[in-house]
Amino acid sequence: GAGVSQSPSNKVTEKGKDVELRCDPISGHTALYWYRQSLGQGLEFLIYFQGNSAPDKSGLPSDRFSAERTGGSVSTLTIQRTQQEDSAVYLCASSPRGLAGDEQFFGPGTRLTVL
Amino acid sequence: SQELEQSPQSLIVQEGKNLTINCTSSKTLYGLYWYKQKYGEGLIFLMMLQKGGEEKSHEKITAKLDEKKQQSSLHITASQPSHAGIYLCGADSGGSNYKLTFGKGTLLTVNP
């Protein structure tokens, strides 16, 4: 029973570069969430995947951010042309059914630093 | 949109002391979640409350949701250094609103 895993654990990149962050949810969980945690902003919702439904992208801060979930399992969050304000910890979570009231299980996060 | 305010922002206590962290919502809470986070780690689920007046306990941690479902408190009895970390409350608005909105967290330090 592995938990949610994320890679890399740390990523340092230069301004303007693209980065990809990976999330492996708990097997069998249909819902997957991305959150961002930055100083002074707390934890912010980014995007939500539920089964084969269209993802809820309402939390993505700009069109430089995108995410995919292949085969209903692994997800990749891509940030294009990174900016310094993108520096944050990116957390992925999964839940069994994606319903209100379901516990969300969080991964350890990817700490992104944009120089 | 729902906003959660946590207080205090930070707290330093001596080992063995009791403490309380509060989480107040701008809207009625449908599900209130408490998580703990240690630096560089993910969030560890503590408890979830859904019913007005509900109270849950796990080891030395007790969480309560008020009758009006707009405020929750997290109480730690006889604190230990292992309780140190950031405590976050999160809330969903019920129905199909599956996203969690989080407070900014309370940083707890427990001095031995």
What would you note in describing this structure?
- The complex is a heterodimer of chains A (115) and B (112).
- In chain A, the strands form two sheets. In chain A, strands 2, 4, 5, 8, 9 and 10 form a six-stranded mixed β-sheet that branches.
- Chain A has no helices and ten strands.
- Chain A has 115 residues and is mainly beta.
- Chain B is mainly beta.
- Chain B has no helices and eleven strands.
- Chain B has strands at residues 4-7, 10-14, 19-25, 31-37, 43-49, 55-58, 61-65, 71-76, 85-92, 101-102, 106-111.
- In chain B, strands 2, 4, 5, 9, 10 and 11 form a six-stranded mixed β-sheet that branches. Chain B has a five-stranded antiparallel β-sheet with strand order 1-3-8-7-6, with no helix packed on it.
- Chain B starts with a strand and ends with a strand.
- The relative contact order of chain B is 0.33.
- Classes of the chains: A mainly beta (115), B mainly beta (112).
- Chain A binds chain B through residues 4, 31, 33, 35, 41-45, 48, 50, 56, 59, 91, 93, 95, 98-109, 111, and chain B through 30-31, 33, 35, 40-45, 48, 50, 88, 90, 92-105.
Q: What coarse outline of chain A follows from CA principal-axis ratios? A: globular
Chain oligomer state:
heterodimer
Largest sheet of chain B: 6 strands, mixed
Radius of gyration of chain B: 13 Å
The ordered H/E elements of chain B are EEEEEEEEEEE
User: Low-confidence stretches of chain B at least 5 residues in length (pLDDT < 50)?
Assistant: none
Helical content of chain A (DSSP H or I, runs of 4+): under 10%
Order of helices and strands of chain A: EEEEEEEEEE
Measured by residues with Cβ under 8 Å of the partner chain's Cβ, the largest interface is: A-B, 29 and 28 residues
Q: Detail the poorly predicted runs of chain A.
A: none
Beta strands of chain A, count = 10
- Count of beta strands of chain B: 11
Q: How large is the count of helical segments of chain B?
A: 0
Query: How much strand content do the residues of chain B show?
Result: over 45%
